[in-house]
Write a structure and sequence with these properties.
The protein is mostly helical. Among the domains are: 46 residues, no CATH class; 40 residues, no CATH class. The protein contains 7 helices and 3 strands, in the order H-H-H-H-H-H-H-E-E-E. The protein has a 3-stranded antiparallel beta sheet, with no helix packed on it. A hairpin with a 6-residue loop joins strand 1 and strand 2. Helix 2 packs across helix 3. The longest helix is centred in the middle third of the chain and has 24 residues. The protein starts with 9 loop residues before the first helix and ends in a 6-residue tail after the last strand.
Length: 164
Amino acid sequence: MSRMTRHLDRELIEGFESISDAARETALVHLRGCAGCRAAWIADEPSRVFALLSRAPVPEQRLELLSQRVAAAVAPRERTPRWYGAASIAASLLLAAVLGAVLWSHELPQQSIARIEEIGSPGRMPLEDIGARLVALPGEESRVLDLTIGETQVLLIFDESIEL
């Protein structure tokens, strides 16, 4: 490749890391201006894009703007006046006092628990009506209640001799 007249050839792209510093600098100048060679060079080794970025000059205006933004971001900010904090605490306490006074002066409804006598008991229902059957084993004092519904079977065993 001669200076900016020819594109980078495949051999130069693949062996870029082994060429002389002067040839590398000439190639980098060409790569900044030639999109085709730049695409082929980066496609050969994607991390090479960082080599171009490190050599690109940064305009002074951008550096100054960035510096101003960083300075503004880290600059100490004005503190809110102390009376804001005291006023917010006072307002919270006043609100709590007013709500407390309103709630204190009102009677809350008395809740009572209904008794069985008031509700009424449905009485004993036959086991067949609820889909259950009592399985009594001869000579046993325990009772087994079979609550089978569809394919689900629940057995309740009542035996006073079992200690848990």
